[in-house]
Amino acid sequence: VMEKADFNVTGMTCAACSARIEKGLNKLEGVTKATVNLALETASVEYNPSLLNKTDIVKRVEKLGYGAAVKD
Ligand code: 9UX
Fold first, then answer.
1. Is the CB of 17 under 6 A from ligand 1?
2. What is the ipTM of this complex?
3. Which residue out of 9, 17, 20 has the highest number of ligand 1 atoms within 8 Å of its CB and is therefore the one to mutate?
4. Contacts by 11-15, CB closer than 8 A, 24 or more apart
């Protein structure tokens, strides 16, 4: 069963940024679908909770050079 989580993403200034994050997240083992919205500064990620958690997703975004926080 997949889970879905939304994140606030900071530091994106152009469409290539959002595309980079999307690519990086979609490459993560366990992520089934990631979409990033540049204008809203958000990311929506569908993932397998037995393979990774929200913190792993935040860390991946940070590793790419952006800020991320779980949205509640
Ligand atoms: Mo756009 Mo983002 O040139 O790191 S890709 S600012």
1. yes
2. 0.86
3. 17
4. 11/65, 11/66, 11/67, 12/36, 12/38, 12/41, 12/66, 14/38
- Segments forming the whole domain that contains residue 10: 3-70
Task: Compute, in angstroms, the gap from residue 15 CA to the centroid of ligand 1.
Answer: 7
pLDDT in tens, 19-49: 999 999 999 999 999 999 999 999 999 999 9
Both tokens of residue 66?
Answer: 């952006």
Q: Please give the average per-residue pLDDT across 55-65, as a whole number.
A: 98
We report the CATH number of the domain holding residue 36 as 3.30.70.100
Count: domains in the chain: 1
Stated pTM of the model? 0.95
Q: What is the best residue among 9, 12, 21 to mutate for testing ligand 1's pocket, by most ligand atoms within 8 Å of CB?
A: 12
